[in-house]
Design goal:
Blueprint: H1 5-17, H2 21-24, H3 29-38, E1 43-44, E2 50-51, E3 57-61, E4 74-78, E5 90-93, E6 98-101, E7 103-104, E8 110-111, H4 120-123, E9 189-193, E10 199-204, E11 212-215, E12 220-226, E13 231-236, E14 241-246, E15 251-257, E16 262-267, E17 273-278, E18 283-288, E19 293-299, E20 304-309, E21 315-320, E22 325-330, E23 337-342, E24 346-352, E25 355-360, E26 365-370, E27 375-381, E28 386-392, E29 395-400, E30 404-409, E31 414-420, E32 427-432, E33 438-443, E34 448-453, E35 458-464, E36 471-475
Antiparallel strand pairs: 1-2, 2-3, 3-6, 4-5, 5-6, 7-8, 9-10, 9-36, 10-11, 12-13, 13-14, 14-15, 16-17, 17-18, 18-19, 20-21, 21-22, 22-23, 24-25, 25-26, 26-27, 28-29, 29-30, 30-31, 32-33, 33-34, 34-35
Amino acid sequence: MRFNFKNIAVLMLVYLLSAMSSYATKLPTYVLDKIKKELPNSSIRFDGLVTLPDGTIYLPVLPSNPKKNPTGKITTTYPFNKKLSQLPEVVVFDSNFALLKVIKNAKGQITVTDTKNIPFVVKTGLFPQDMLVPPGLIIPEDLKIMMGDLVINTKDSRVNDILKNSSRLNKNENVAQNIKPVSSLINKTLLVTVLDSKVVSVIPTDSTAPKYTFRMENLPKFVQPFGNDRYLLVAAAGKTYVEVADVEQEVIAKKIDLSYQPSEVVLNNDKSKAYVAVFDDQSIFVIDLKNMTLLEKIKVKGYPKNISINEENSAIVYSDRNTGDIYTLALNETYLNRYVYNASNISKLALRGNNVYVLSRSENELQVIDCELQDIIYNQPLASKPVDMLLMNNKLYILCASNELDIFNLEDFSLVNKYTIPGGGFSKKIVMIPNSNNLLITNVSERKYHVYDLAKNAVIQTVSLPINISDLQLLNRKIK
């Protein structure tokens, strides 16, 4: 029998470093401190990839023989005697942890520096095994031992096309017009999905039309920004997984398999966790959005729909899509699942304290249900087809498809104001603009969104788009 000693060496390295798999996604503190000090504008992805605003990328290399008591001192660089801020191609710390810069060779291919410039101690290390390296990266033959089980995607792989499928507007489509956005929307981006299209449109807030689009595998179920809007949690109809798209690197960075079709998602306040309801199972999945890992599957009563999380992140409320039964789910170690009430044709739920707020589309009313009494303690007639609501401070903002915004005081359930949204069509969704006193209100059939000022109780801007708006998400950043 003939042995391939190179393969054996790779297997040994993978085995020896397998215990460091969690470490692979978290750079050592001394490395993070050094990067923060010398490259303050850089960002570090969940798998350890380091990215600079100018597009520079560093790949982390885990040492096979880490030195003890590291101080974070850089012992070796190539070119020699360079600071990290000078962006050398090789950086070796006093623990033998290393960073390799992604560069282009003479043929324009992305790779790393010539192997003669890389110390032997780095060549015996290993890339994080959950890392997504830039698609098409070429690793020199004598460095492939560092890859372990890491797979490098080709340039035409799907990880490289969801956000680079930059389909520009055709000449016969509406030409984008520059607009002056209100101050709260400056340098922000809209992500707009259409009910019957696989395409998600990326629209700058200073324009009336998409800058480009990206195509999903099927009709989008949800597109949810998180991680300072660097990432998108996306799911497509008919697929049993959710994907994490890296907006900066323009790739799919992670696929998380649930074995069931995801249908809805809600994030906690700091967007560190996602709670994903699935289409055909009595369960809610919990995803850690910092490490991009599936934490657990919570079995629940009924088939969850209209999921919503309270302001304290202590409980979820949802309805059973088959029966209309409403349940709460405690988000502690007990995961206590309690029946609350049965309602018909629910369009939206919200939970605050001991009360569940229900929009009944068939009854055209707001119902306030006491969880302990399991009964309605207050109801309020609304305009036709209530579709969305936003609970903020001591007020509840309810949007009706008939273009009415109703505002309630939650202390005494009194109706504070009714506002008629200009125009016709079918209002659909309320979106809070971060760090502002403004809301976005979408209109599906008239292809427009309104900017509503809470203090003025009035629409202060209306923008028409060339596409229907089924769902809208707001990125607190300007996409290049």
